[in-house]
Structures are given as C-alpha cells and as structure tokens.
Write a structure and sequence with these properties.
homodimer; 217 residues; mainly alpha; Arc Repressor Mutant, subunit A; 2 domains; 10 helices; DNA-binding; Homeodomain-like_sf (chains A, B); DNA-binding (chains A, B); transcription cis-regulatory region binding (chains A, B); HTH-type_TetR-like_transc_reg (chains A, B)
DNA sequence: AGGAAATCTTGACACTCGTCCAAATTCGTT
DNA sequence: AACGAATTTGGACGAGTGTCAAGATTTCCT
C-alpha cells in the first residue's frame, strides 16, 4: 500500500512531482512492454508473465504499477492511440494539390502498414474484444472516433483541393478506409508482397471515389 | 481408438454409411453448440467445458468427435461460412431494378445485423485471430473470398441494372461494405438504436458511390 | 438374449493463469 | 552511516485449462 494515494505528507511539491514522474515513467515502460507482447501474441494468449518477461522485470511488479490485468490492457489501448493517431497530421497540411495529398496520404498508410503491422493487428484484435467485453468499448470507441476525424480531415482537404465536395459523410468514409486497410493488413501479414502497392493504389482510388472524381472502369 | 479409421471390416456399405451419418450428425450438433458458445463468450474466453455444457454432453465427448480444440474451432469456422454466405443469393436474382436491388440487399444486411449480431462478432473475432495464428488464415481467407464474390455479384448486378459500370474492383468493394458493416455491428452491440437504419442508408448510398450514380453532398 | 462395437461419463494429469504477500533490495533523506 | 519509504522479487494460492484414458453405458447386429 504505497502508491495511488500519493501517500505520505510531503512538504515540497518537487519531491512529489519527481516521484510521480518516476512512477509514470515506469508505467509507460511496462505499458510499452505490454504493447509489444500483445502485438506479438495477441490478446487471447498474452499472460502477465509474458509481458513481465518482455519488460525485464519480474511478474509481480505489474500489480505494483497496475491495479489488475484489465487496468494494464486499458492503459495499453490508450497508449496505442497516442502512438498511432498523430502520424498523419502533417500530411494534410503540407500537401498543396489533390493528387499530391493523395500520394502522400497513401504513402503514409503504406508506411504504417509495413512498419507497424503487428501494432495494427493488435488494434483489430482489441476492437474485436470490445464486441464481447463491454468494458473495452468506451476506449475503443474513442480511438475509432479520433481515427474517423483524421480520415475526415484528409477527405475534406482532398475534396477542397479537387474542387468537388465529398459524396459521403465521415463515418462512411472512415469505414471504407478502415476496410481496405484491414484487408491490406491481412495480406501483408500473410506475406503477400503486393499488399503495400495494392493498398497505395486502393487509397488513391478511394479518395477519387468518395469525391466522385474517378473515371469509370 | 474407434473412429477416424472407419475401423473394422464392414461387408455392407449401408451400415458404414449410417454410422458415418450419425457421426457427422453429432459433429454438426457439437459444432453448433461450439458456434453458439463462441459467439457468446468470444474466442479468448471459450473453454471446451463451456462448449460441452452448452451442448448437453460431458466435456470428454469433444475429444471423441474432434481431434483437439483447434480441430473443433476450424470446424466451426467452416460451418459459419455455410450458415452465412448463402443468405444473399436470392436477393440478386429477384430484383429487377437498381433501386429495388439496393433496397432488398440493404434490408438483408440489416436483417442479419440484427438477428445474427453475435455470430458476426465471432467472425470478426476469428478473423482477428487469424492475424496471429497462421493456421487460421487459410479458412479465413476462403470465407473472405466467398464473401467478396457475393458482394461482387451484387455490385455487378446493380451496375448492370443502373446502366453504369462500377468504379472500383471487387476487392475494394468488399472491403468497403465490410467496413461499414463492422462499424454498424459495433454500434448495434453497443445498443445504438439507429444502427440498423444507418446501415441501411449506408448500404444504399455505397452502392450508388461505387457506381458513380450518387449526387454530391 | 448375448456380445461386440460404438458412444459417453468421469476423474485425473500436468500446466498456466491472475492475484496476492512476505521478504529482499534499492533509493532518498537526514 | 543509518534509517524509513519505495520498489522489486519470487514463491504460493486456488481456479481453470486442454488432454487423455479407463470404465460405464448405450446401440446394434446375430
């Protein structure tokens, strides 16, 4: 019984701050180890001992920094969002033409498909879990919402640069991009070498589709 | 050591047939119990004892009809396909106008969203599992492919009736419809009462989008 | 009816799991 | 250096897991 009440009477706020920092720092460290382990093994088969082993600490320490397993997983989900969402923001601002934006956005999606594949599969795993465990839904919905806003910014900007309004709302646009990314991820993890290029082409084409600026085929 | 080698010498094929039938019948029965249990609890938390309890048999019988847990799960996945894919086939053939097809197809999707929500969440759960367990990928990919063909038939027929060719290929079309269905499922299971109607409108609009026949908004 | 094969039950096994806790260790202050 | 608090360890617990096999029960043919 040492933490979580910030414990004893401290005169100077500096000491308390330092301690909180250190506590939070280790939490983050353990959270990252958990994130890595979860993205390796998946939610169904990741135990606290697996996570501890990946962190270099013993398994008992996890209950010192997290109340229980659910607390740890929730922390990981929130941390995933921090890692993931920020990635596309500069893409929107730097592009000056519709095709340029499309190319840059597609390149960014392909990059994260290749580099962060295991992290993304964890996301889809946890989102599926939220279909069964109600306690996950709030966090999952929040991440979904922020991803939807990200897509909305991209589509809106693309439509602006192309001069034609979008033909569908943000929820549908997000669902569509999420759908092709998910398919691309499955193929990427299956070792399909054409998955990145297909995703790139798909993203570019889908931006054209949602703004009605694509030719028939 | 009784089955799987079809065992001893039988003179009449009729007897063997009957036995195989009975064996397969019970396999199906247990598979359905497993399907129900999995769709209730999710892959991560379903044990063989849970499944047995839902089937009315003891837990030992599962290893009489299935080699191991993976064998059972695989059987369930294949059975899901049989249950699920056949549902839309008559929709395509009966419709005679584009808007009629759209309405009927959307209605069918809404119906299965409402009635088979727990079954669909199992599908997304198992597809996520296939991102981690390579042994699932073949079956998952096969189901994905047959769903893609189903979507392709609908979109192709719709484009035919509307007189305008589709603006994207089957993989992208499937990814898009899968995306909005997944979002709708999440909202449906969260208790959002507008999820069915939103899905209906989304499907209709998406058919218009992929054929380039929708007005700007 | 009798007996063999098929089917089902039951209990056990070797693990792994999340959780907890007392002891050991490290850290920061005086 | 020394003391108290914070941190870390490692073992223990009870519950739950998949798997297996021996025995009980049912089914079916002669």
């Amino acid at each position: 019984m040492t933490r979580s009440a910030t414990s004893t009477g401290e005169h100077t706020g500096r000491i308390a701050r330092r301690r909180v920092d250190k506590f939070e720092e280790r939490r983050r460290e353990l959270g990252d180890a958990a994130l890595q382990t979860l993205s390796e093994l998946g939610y169904a088969r990741t135990s606290l001992r697996d996570i501890a082993q990946n962190s270099g600490f013993s398994h008992g320490v996890l209950h010192y920094y997290f109340h229980d397993k659910f607390d740890l997983i929730t922390y990981c989900v929130r941390r995933y969002k921090a890692v993931c969402v920020q990635r596309y923001d500069d893409v929107v601002t730097t592009a000056s033409t519709a095709s340029g934006l499309a190319a840059e956005f597609a390149a960014a999606m392909v990059a994260t498909l290749v580099e962060d594949a295991v992290l993304h599969r964890l996301w889809y795993d946890l989102r599926s879990q939220s279909l069964f465990e109600e306690s996950f839904r709030a966090d999952v919905a929040e991440i979904d919402a922020s991803l939807e806003r990200m897509i909305e910014r991209v589509v809106r900007r693309y439509a602006e640069l192309a001069g034609t309004p979008s033909v569908c709302g943000a929820p549908m646009a997000y669902a569509m991009f999420d759908g092709i990314f998910q398919q691309a991820l499955l193929r990427q993890l299956s070792g399909d070498p054409s998955a990145p290029e297909d995703l790139r082409a798909g993203v570019v084409q889908m931006l054209a589709v949602v703004t009605g600026t694509c030719e028939r085929q």
